[in-house]
Amino acid sequence: MLILGAMTFQTQRFLHPSHLPVRNFFTFGGYNNVTPLPGSALYVVCALALTTSSPAGNSDMSFYIDQQLVGTFVQSAPGTSGYQYSVTVYANSALTYGTHTFTIQNGHVNGPKSLILLDRIIYT
Q1: What is the CATH number of the domain that holds 103?
Q2: The model's pTM
Q3: Could you tell me the residue range of the domain that residue 55 belongs to?
Q4: Within 10 Å of residue 17's Cβ, how many Cβ atoms?
Q5: Using one digit for the tens of pLDDT, what is the confidence trace for 20-45?
Q6: Who's near 73: CB < 8 A, 6+ residues apart?
Q7: DSSP characters for the chain?
Protein backbone atom coordinates (compact mmCIF):
# COMPACT_ATOMS: atom_id res chain seq x y z
CA MET A 1 0.00 0.00 0.00
CA LEU A 2 1.20 3.50 -0.85
CA ILE A 3 -0.17 6.51 1.02
CA LEU A 4 0.59 9.98 -0.28
CA GLY A 5 -0.44 12.83 1.96
CA ALA A 6 -0.90 16.61 2.07
CA MET A 7 -0.17 17.11 -1.59
CA THR A 8 -2.02 20.15 -2.89
CA PHE A 9 -4.19 23.17 -2.13
CA GLN A 10 -6.00 24.75 -5.05
CA THR A 11 -8.63 27.43 -5.49
CA GLN A 12 -9.35 29.40 -8.67
CA ARG A 13 -11.54 29.59 -11.73
CA PHE A 14 -10.82 27.04 -14.42
CA LEU A 15 -9.54 28.69 -17.61
CA HIS A 16 -10.22 27.92 -21.26
CA PRO A 17 -8.38 24.70 -22.27
CA SER A 18 -5.88 26.61 -24.42
CA HIS A 19 -4.74 28.49 -21.29
CA LEU A 20 -4.87 25.75 -18.67
CA PRO A 21 -2.54 26.39 -15.75
CA VAL A 22 -0.77 23.28 -14.51
CA ARG A 23 -2.09 23.76 -10.98
CA ASN A 24 -5.66 22.86 -12.02
CA PHE A 25 -4.51 19.26 -12.37
CA PHE A 26 -2.78 16.85 -10.05
CA THR A 27 -1.47 13.83 -11.89
CA PHE A 28 -0.26 10.95 -9.79
CA GLY A 29 3.48 10.94 -10.45
CA GLY A 30 3.71 14.41 -11.98
CA TYR A 31 2.01 16.56 -14.59
CA ASN A 32 4.22 16.00 -17.64
CA ASN A 33 6.21 12.95 -16.58
CA VAL A 34 3.74 10.46 -15.12
CA THR A 35 5.23 7.66 -13.04
CA PRO A 36 2.58 4.92 -13.03
CA LEU A 37 2.26 2.64 -10.04
CA PRO A 38 0.82 -0.89 -9.97
CA GLY A 39 -2.27 -1.59 -7.94
CA SER A 40 -5.91 -2.65 -7.84
CA ALA A 41 -7.55 -0.03 -5.57
CA LEU A 42 -7.43 3.75 -5.21
CA TYR A 43 -8.93 6.07 -2.59
CA VAL A 44 -8.81 9.88 -2.47
CA VAL A 45 -9.43 11.57 0.89
CA CYS A 46 -9.90 15.34 1.28
CA ALA A 47 -10.86 17.95 3.83
CA LEU A 48 -13.83 20.06 2.74
CA ALA A 49 -14.15 23.73 3.62
CA LEU A 50 -17.68 24.58 4.74
CA THR A 51 -17.31 28.31 3.98
CA THR A 52 -18.46 30.07 0.80
CA SER A 53 -15.65 32.65 0.92
CA SER A 54 -12.19 32.92 2.46
CA PRO A 55 -11.83 30.17 1.32
CA ALA A 56 -14.50 29.42 -1.26
CA GLY A 57 -15.29 25.86 -0.26
CA ASN A 58 -17.13 24.54 -3.31
CA SER A 59 -15.88 21.17 -4.54
CA ASP A 60 -15.83 20.24 -8.23
CA MET A 61 -13.42 17.38 -8.90
CA SER A 62 -13.12 15.02 -11.85
CA PHE A 63 -11.10 11.81 -11.57
CA TYR A 64 -9.34 10.10 -14.47
CA ILE A 65 -7.66 6.71 -14.60
CA ASP A 66 -5.60 6.01 -17.70
CA GLN A 67 -6.99 9.23 -19.25
CA GLN A 68 -10.62 8.02 -18.88
CA LEU A 69 -13.15 9.86 -16.71
CA VAL A 70 -14.06 7.46 -13.88
CA GLY A 71 -15.82 9.69 -11.37
CA THR A 72 -16.70 13.13 -10.08
CA PHE A 73 -17.27 14.78 -6.73
CA VAL A 74 -19.36 17.97 -6.80
CA GLN A 75 -20.61 19.66 -3.64
CA SER A 76 -21.53 23.25 -2.81
CA ALA A 77 -20.24 24.64 0.46
CA PRO A 78 -23.08 25.06 2.99
CA GLY A 79 -21.83 28.50 4.11
CA THR A 80 -20.95 27.67 7.70
CA SER A 81 -17.59 27.96 9.41
CA GLY A 82 -15.08 25.16 9.70
CA TYR A 83 -14.01 22.07 7.81
CA GLN A 84 -15.16 18.50 7.37
CA TYR A 85 -12.18 16.16 7.63
CA SER A 86 -11.36 12.72 6.20
CA VAL A 87 -13.97 12.76 3.45
CA THR A 88 -13.51 10.04 0.83
CA VAL A 89 -14.21 11.86 -2.44
CA TYR A 90 -13.25 8.97 -4.73
CA ALA A 91 -13.05 5.23 -4.09
CA ASN A 92 -12.36 2.47 -6.57
CA SER A 93 -11.61 -1.04 -5.33
CA ALA A 94 -12.32 -2.72 -8.67
CA LEU A 95 -9.29 -1.73 -10.73
CA THR A 96 -7.74 -4.49 -12.76
CA TYR A 97 -4.37 -5.19 -11.20
CA GLY A 98 -1.68 -3.44 -13.19
CA THR A 99 -0.04 -0.13 -13.89
CA HIS A 100 -2.37 2.89 -14.06
CA THR A 101 -2.11 6.68 -14.21
CA PHE A 102 -4.40 8.86 -12.09
CA THR A 103 -5.36 12.52 -12.56
CA ILE A 104 -7.55 14.87 -10.51
CA GLN A 105 -9.02 17.87 -12.33
CA ASN A 106 -10.15 20.81 -10.19
CA GLY A 107 -13.10 22.78 -11.62
CA HIS A 108 -14.47 23.29 -15.12
CA VAL A 109 -14.25 25.91 -17.87
CA ASN A 110 -16.26 29.01 -16.83
CA GLY A 111 -17.31 27.27 -13.62
CA PRO A 112 -17.31 28.71 -10.11
CA LYS A 113 -14.23 28.68 -7.90
CA SER A 114 -13.50 25.25 -6.49
CA LEU A 115 -11.16 24.07 -3.80
CA ILE A 116 -9.18 20.89 -3.25
CA LEU A 117 -7.70 20.25 0.19
CA LEU A 118 -6.08 16.93 -0.58
CA ASP A 119 -5.38 14.94 2.56
CA ARG A 120 -4.16 11.67 1.09
CA ILE A 121 -4.27 9.24 -1.81
CA ILE A 122 -4.18 5.57 -0.94
CA TYR A 123 -3.13 3.26 -3.75
CA THR A 124 -3.01 -0.51 -3.13
Answers
A1: 2.60.120
A2: 0.74
A3: 2-123
A4: 7
A5: 443 444 444 433 334 466 778 889 99
A6: 59, 60, 61, 63, 89, 90
A7: -EEEES--EEEEPBPPGGG--GGGEEETT-SSS---EEES-EEEEEEEE--SSSS---EEEEEEETTEEEEEEEE---S-SSEEEEEEEEEE--PPSEEE-EEEEE--BTPPPEEEEEEEEEE-
